[in-house]
Design goal:
The chain is of the alpha+beta class. The protein has 2 domains: 79 residues, Double Stranded RNA Binding Domain (2-Layer Sandwich); 80 residues, Ribosomal Protein S5, domain 2, CATH 3.30.230.10. Helices cover 36% and strands 34% of the residues. It has 5 helices and 8 strands. It has a 4-stranded antiparallel beta sheet. The protein has a 4-stranded mixed beta sheet with strand order 5-6-8-7.
Length: 173
């Protein structure tokens, strides 16, 4: 029993060390009470290993470092696998929508680089996408753009996934 707990803890620690983290946004939230203003901070963090794993998390606390730590913990819990073609680009064009933010991502030829701005760029770089074209449509709220980018990456399907859904072999496609 104790050995299983230590192995689980070891796996969590090694996973945290393998994932890079990047702070997308830090916001100050003010609550006005009878006694005056009460300030808190919210943070949004992206984690990824640049090889197909990426996650987003948000956290709130009375101090900025605590908010970033909470956001990092949430991001580590929400890590998902992203489909990459040749380890550098995405399989096909996709869009992701969260709130009024809409993000369009397109595969690009080798050497193009990551053509994206702000939060979308952070997500794509930490996911390991090296060649991609991105366009943010609608709202440009950092948190929603980041979530929409992640949703677009999650919706990607590789030829292997499509073949298994159709009950065929990859060569038959």
């Amino acid at each position: 029993m104790q050995k299983e707990k230590s192995e689980k803890q070891f796996n969590k620690d090694t996973r945290k060390k393998l994932l890079e983290e990047k702070v997308i946004s830090i916001g100050r939230v003010t609550k006005v009470t009878k006694g005056g203003r009460h300030f808190r901070f919210s943070a949004t963090v992206v984690v990824g290993n640049r090889k197909g794993l990426v996650g987003i998390g948000t956290g709130k606390a009375n101090e900025v470092p605590q908010a970033i730590a909470k956001a990092s913990m949430m991001a580590n819990k929400n890590v998902t696998k992203v489909a990459l073609m040749d380890g550098r680009t995405i399989p096909h064009e996709a869009t992701g929508k969260v709130g009024r933010a809409c993000v369009l991502i397109k595969p690009a030829t080798k050497g193009t680089g990551v053509i994206a701005g702000g939060a979308a760029r952070s997500i794509l770089e930490l996911a390991g996408v090296k060649d991609v074209i991105s366009k943010s449509l609608g709202s440009n709220t950092k948190i929603n753009v980041a979530k929409a980018t992640l949703e677009a990456l999650k919706s990607e399907r590789t030829p292997l996934k499509i073949a298994t859904l159709r009950g065929k072999k990859v060569e038959e496609l």
